[in-house]
Amino acid sequence: MTPSPVSVADAWTRPLFLVWQPIWTPQPPTRPVGEILTRIRPPQPEWALSPLAWWRMAATLGPHLVAQLDQWVWQTVARHQIPGHWHINLWPHTVMTQAAWIAQQPTAGLVLETTEQWPWSARLWDTLYDVWMSRQGRVMLDDWTDDTVVPAYRGLHGLKIDQTVWHDEPFTAAFISRWTDFVARCHDHGLIVIAEGIETPEQRDIALQCGCDGLQGFLWGQPQVWPQRTDDAEGFVIPQ
């Protein structure tokens, strides 16, 4: 699966293309930090499936399709060599079928994001550790919603608190206390914590009060089209 090259100008009209969402950090980086997302635009204008919805659909059709998509995203990001620190999504199906390929990929400048919404066996996680984390590669858990349990996966770099946490519950003193304690326990285990779905100044302030190390969300704008040339990256907006 190798779509034809997509320019920044016409990317939004193509069926399959990449965007990136900036990740804010307290110390403004000299290079962009962001998550790379896949967008699928069916013929209907102004409508695109979410990445999770697409990957669920792809998994229904066959794990090999998920692995092919993961590999295409990874190869696209690596090929264009845009300076920055990029988070890309990785699913268990890809580790199952492409472990040897992953073991050959450079680890610099990439963070792999995965989720417990797909099952990870201990053996499969050990495979991911062997082919990626043992070579200083970083992995983060996405979509985290449980403030009672700190994940204990071998070699884990950090986690991202899901957007529903900041949207579905009022910011009471109890809420702040629970999540502050959770983030502190994550830090005690050497994990970094990023808050997703930050759309308002209040959500930003609460997430920072809870101790989050980074923030991601529409407060800093909509996802930006992933460029096809290094020159196109000069227009990247880095949140301040």
The tally of structural domains comes to 1
Instruction: Give the C-alpha Rg.
Output: 18 Å
Largest sheet: 8 strands, mixed, barrel
Output the CATH topology.
Answer: TIM Barrel
The 3D shape can be described as globular
Helix content: 25-40%
- Poorly predicted parts: 1-9
Written as H for each helix and E for each strand, in order along the chain, the element string is: EEHHEHEHEEHHEHEE
- Rounded to the nearest angstrom, the distance between the terminal CA atoms is 37 Å
Report the total helices.
Answer: 7
What is the spatial order of strands in the main beta sheet?
A: 1-2-3-4-5-6-7-8
Under CATH at level 1, the class stands as Alpha Beta
Average per-residue pLDDT, rounded, comes to 83
The total beta strand count reads 9
Name of the CATH architecture: Alpha-Beta Barrel
Please indicate the percent range of residues in DSSP E strands (runs of 2 or more). Answer: 15-25%
Backbone structural class: alpha/beta
Corresponding CATH superfamily: EAL domain
GO molecular function, one term: cyclic-guanylate-specific phosphodiesterase activity
Domain EAL: 4-228
Pfam families: EAL
Organism: Sulfobacillus thermosulfidooxidans (strain DSM 9293 / VKM B-1269 / AT-1)
Short key terms for the protein model shown above:
240 residues, alpha/beta, TIM Barrel, 8-stranded mixed barrel, 7 helices, 9 strands, 20% strand, globular, disordered N terminus
